[in-house]
């Protein structure tokens, strides 16, 4: 039997090598196509975004110039407006809509999209009021002073609110860097706050809402809010 099977070994080895080579070629084809597609998509996306930025750049620059002139170039006022006032107004505008829906259950169209159906339906008004006051206090007495304290460091770093808006590529770079920094720091700080020693004194407050609503995204102990 051994003698009859011996001649088949080179043939089988050749078939195996051929299959391996075919797999390598297919893999190279898939990877190569994927890289080319990604490069083409990136270049196309960048081109379109540059066109959009170029088309709208004059519009935004003109309005920024008007705002800058309105405040007479007062960089502290512009810095506070962009870093504290506008984000806070945006937060409360969106959450005012959500609070109305949480308290009234209307319109019914939105309630079907609750992540936890049957929870906070309707929400406890007293509990919600307490959460809203806590969030507002965190913003007024912690966030705003922190923004003001950051202003001298921003001045030391450079001109934080100059007359010229940043370039398109600089905006993309800053978005990329700071999204990564924020995600990494938030993840590890959150894990730290779940340490038993810290959790019961600090982070437990945030988890008082086992079925959270929009406004409690900033409902936290003052120390946690600072971090």
Key structural traits:
transmembrane, mainly alpha, membrane, 227 residues, extended, 8 helices, oxidoreductase activity, 74% helix, Fatty acid hydroxylase domain-containing protein, transmembrane helix
Task: Output the radius of gyration.
Answer: 28 Å
Specify the structural class.
Answer: mainly alpha
Strand-residue fraction? under 5%
Shape: extended
Transmembrane segments: 76-101, 131-153, 168-188
Keywords: Membrane, Transmembrane, Transmembrane helix
GO cellular component, one term: membrane
Protein name: Fatty acid hydroxylase domain-containing protein
Quick overview:
Residues 176-226 form the Fatty acid hydroxylase domain. This protein has 227 residues and is mainly alpha-helical. It contains 8 helices and no strands.
Task: Provide structural commentary.
The chain has 227 residues and is mainly alpha-helical. Helix content is 74%, strand content 0%. The protein contains 8 helices and no strands. Helix 3 runs antiparallel to helix 5 (125-157). The longest helix is centred in the N-terminal third of the chain and has 63 residues, at 8-70. The mean pLDDT is 83.
